[in-house]
Structures are given as C-alpha cells and as structure tokens.
Amino acid sequence: MFMGASTKQGYDIAEKSRKIVKSLIDDKTAHLTPEERAIVERMVHSTADPEYADITRISDDFVHESLKSIRNGGDILTDINMVKVGINRYHGNVNCYIKDERAVKIAKESGITRAAAAMRVAALEGFEGIVAIGNAPTALLEVLDLVQRGEMNVKSVIGVPVGFVGAAESKKALQETEIPYLATEGPKGGTPVAVAAVNALINLDMGKV
C-alpha cells in the first residue's frame, strides 16, 4: 500500500494525503516523467513542504541508472545512520560507515568530518551503487572527489544535505558533474528528503508508486 500504509485507515489517510500533494504540485511537476513525479510527490508528502517541487533537480539519467542499480542489487550508501534506518524493504545492502573505527581514525588524522571520512571507508570497501546524502555537505563533496579520482564507482547520487554552510554549494557542484543525480537547491534537504527519494525508487522498482 501507498507510503507504508498497512491498514484500511492508514491507506485511506495516505490516499487523501496523496491527493492533497498532487493538487498542490501538479502544475509544478508537469514537465517531469511519471517516475520523477512519483519521487517528488513522496518528498513533498514526507516533508509537508510543496516547495520541494520547485527546488528539486533531477538529471535525465537519474531514474534509469538508479533503478538499474537497484535491480542489480547494488549497495546503497548513506552519510548518517538516520538515513540508513529510514530505508526499508530493500533487498540489497544499505551501508553507513560514520561510526566505523576507520572513519574515526581517518577523520582525526586528515582533519575532515567523520561523514567525509566514512565515504573514504566506503571506497576502500569497494562500494558500488547509489549514494544518499541527507545531512553532510562534506560527505557529498568527498564523494565527488572520490569519483573524479576514479576511486569510487557511483551509479547515482541523491544529494540533499541540509544547512546554511556548504549545503547549497555542494549540491551545485554535484549538478555540474556527469554523475546521475537528484539534488535540491539552496539550504533545504535533510534525512526525510533523502529517505523519501530512496524509498520512492524502491517502490518504483517494486511496481508501487
């Protein structure tokens, strides 16, 4: 059932919410493909913020490459555990290395954030798949550097870090690469947005929207 509903009451509420969301953003998402619209609708539903229909940017190849990775059982990498916990019903691995001892050591020795260091650990582990960044701009920038150096095999990136320091800049940098991406413009983003985007992709793979 839609958006996690498992009872008739839950389904009825979800359906009502879906209709409200569609009424608020239909005109704003008319240029998107049905799959892209489903993703944006879930982001708006999860945040109760229709502005995401205005500020979300999706590259032409994002949905195709992301679904291909999911269907091939590719890993999903998150910047923090809150994003990892929110991703459900995925048959593959969802990894987060922010509490890994290696990330702690790298962060201390290199003078970088643990979120950025966690991306380096993922690269060492041979990560291949979708990256979902909901909080740390430093993690997103590290991913871009790792990809540029040929040290990480990324299929797509959901780059929606939240905040007033570095978030907008990191998302702009993502959009200037050739990596298939979904990004939000400006300071808005966060865990609910990253989780919504990933779970929407999983639902699309399962034939649910």
UniProtKB/TrEMBL annotation:
UniProt entry keywords in alphabetical sequence:
Cobalamin biosynthesis, Isomerase
E.C. no: 5.4.99.60
The UniProt GO MF terms for this protein read: cobalt-precorrin-8 methylmutase activity; precorrin-8X methylmutase activity
List, alphabetically, the SUPFAM superfamilies matched: Precorrin-8X methylmutase CbiC/CobH (SSF63965)
Q: In which pathway does it act?
A: Cofactor biosynthesis; adenosylcobalamin biosynthesis
Q: Which residues form the Cobalamin biosynthesis precorrin-8X methylmutase CobH/CbiC domain?
A: 12-203
Instruction: Tell me one Pfam family matched here.
Output: CbiC
**Segment forming the signal sequence:** none
Biological processes annotated in GO: cobalamin biosynthetic process
PANTHER family of this UniProt entry?
Answer: COBALT-PRECORRIN-8 METHYLMUTASE
What family is reported? Belongs to the CobH/CbiC family.
The identity of this protein, by name, is Cobalt-precorrin-8 methylmutase
